[in-house]
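Aim 2 progress update. The chain analyzed this quarter is reproduced below.
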Amino acid sequence: MGIQNNSIPNRLLSHLLKELPEGVAVPSAWLSTQGISPQLVRKYVASGWLTALAHGAYARPAVSVDWQGVVLTLQRLARQPVHVGGLSALNLQGLAHYLPLGGETRIHLWSHGKGPTRLPAWVSAVSLPQQFVFHPQQLFDPAVHGEGLTSVPTRVRDWGLAVAAPERAILEVLSLVDESAASFTHAAELFEGLPPLRPALVQQLLEGCASIKVKRLFLFLATRQDTPWSRKLRTERVLLGQGKRLVTRGGRLDKTFGITVPEAYSVAQG
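Predicted C-alpha cells:
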C-alpha cells in the first residue's frame, strides 16, 4: 500500500503511522486530537491501514494487541494516571509465586493522582485472554501519589510500562487481603519473597498511606521478618490509629499492632 503525499488525508496518515507504534490500541478520541475525523478513520480501516479492535478503539494490523498494549495506550495516548500494581506488578518483576500455567489471567490496574474512577468502555470490549481488575481507590495521600512507580520494558518501541515498584506493590497487595487465612498467608509469602526494599521509599509510602490496616499489616510482617532494611524504618513516625483491627477472622490478636492474624503467624505474648 503506497501513500500519496498530495492530500491532507494522506499526510495525516503518514503522521499517524509515524506516531502510532504497532502493538498498541488507539482510542478514537486520540485520533480526533490528531485531526483524523471519523470519516478518515473509516477510510483507513477500509484501506487496511487500521483495524477495528472494538467500538472506539483501533490498531495497526500487523501486530496483535496484548494486555500490555492496552495499558500502554491508557498511559501514553490517553494520558491516564494508571499503573500496573499489586500482584500483577510483582509478577512482571519476577517476584510473585504460584503463577498459573499460561500466565496471569487478572491484571490489576491502579489509579494514582487524579486518576479515573473507571476504565474507558473500549478497554473491556477489546478481546483479550486476560481480565482487567481496576482499583480506583486512592491508597496514598496526594503528596506521595506518584511515588514508588517504575518502568519495565515492553516490545513496543522504547515505550516502558509504568508499574508499581516492589515497595508500593506489596502495600497494594496488603490492601486487598480479606478476612480469610488463605488471603493473609498468600500476602505474607509474597512479602517473604521480596528482595531487600529501599527503607527511605518504604518510609515515605508508609507515612503517606491512607489505610491503617495496610500500615499495621506491613509493619507486622516487616517486624516478623526482621531484616536489615526493616530495622532502618522509623516506625514511630507512622500513624497507626487507635483500637483493634479485624484482619483474619478467627485469628489471634497481635498485641503489638492490634490486628488479628492466623494462628501460624501469631507469637505468644504475655
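Strands lie at 26-27, 51-54, 57-59, 82-84, 106-111, 131-135, 149-153, 160-164, 252-254, 259-261. The mean pLDDT is 91. These observations will guide the mutagenesis experiments scheduled for the next reporting period.
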